[in-house]
């Protein structure tokens, strides 16, 4: 169950309160997130921006359950991640879509098989047959302009094409939470626009909450809200 915002009547898939994070221990510990308070509603696209080293990637990985929370409260898709066990973190990861810069495509699978893999591990696709998954994977690759390359292995694809496969893999299961780190960095202007239009569609049609780190000025208009991290603190939004 996700929490309902009584005032706005909207779900809040992400709710952070007084979140702190440190790297290292003892005297060498360095605080990289300081008292973060942030709510993201269903259907909302939030852009996270800020200078290098300000903590954007750290925050994004914590939202996806890829890094343990140490202090404060971090509720994502209804799960409290502070002191969460591995089962809870795995449950969250399976419901979220991730687009990170190191595409993490499986090299021995074709583009289409990589996208299908994203469906196979998604709880919402449990029990669906192989043909339905193949159709969805092909359609998603078509939407990111890779219809002609669906049977290529990653090593035969350019950086931007690999990025688009990773985007198709993340979007195919229609996740309720999408986390993206510079998703348009390797893409030309038109393809970048097509990709963020797909994000908008996911937010509008599925009520997905989307958090995207980007410095790409060409796509900032897709955001419902832009927040800035500086030195580990949220300074705007
Ligand atoms: N695994 C780690 N161990 C120790 N320090 C780390 C680790 N990962 C990140 N840091 C430090 O934490 C701070 C925040 O890093 P983070 O990668 O979250 O910043 P960022 O805003 O995403 O930067 P960029 O825009 O350059 O990707 C930086 O000072 C970084 O050096």
TrEMBL record:
This is ATP-binding cassette domain-containing protein. The keyword Transport applies. Coiled coil: none annotated. It comes from the Bacteria. Keywords: ATP-binding, Nucleotide-binding, Transport. The lineage of its organism: Bacteria, Bacillati, Cyanobacteriota, Cyanophyceae, Synechococcales. It comes from Cyanobium gracile UHCC 0281. PROSITE patterns: ABC_TRANSPORTER_1, ABC_TRANSPORTER_2. Residues 16-237 form the ABC transporter domain. It holds the Pfam family ABC_tran. One of its GO terms (molecular function) is ATP binding.
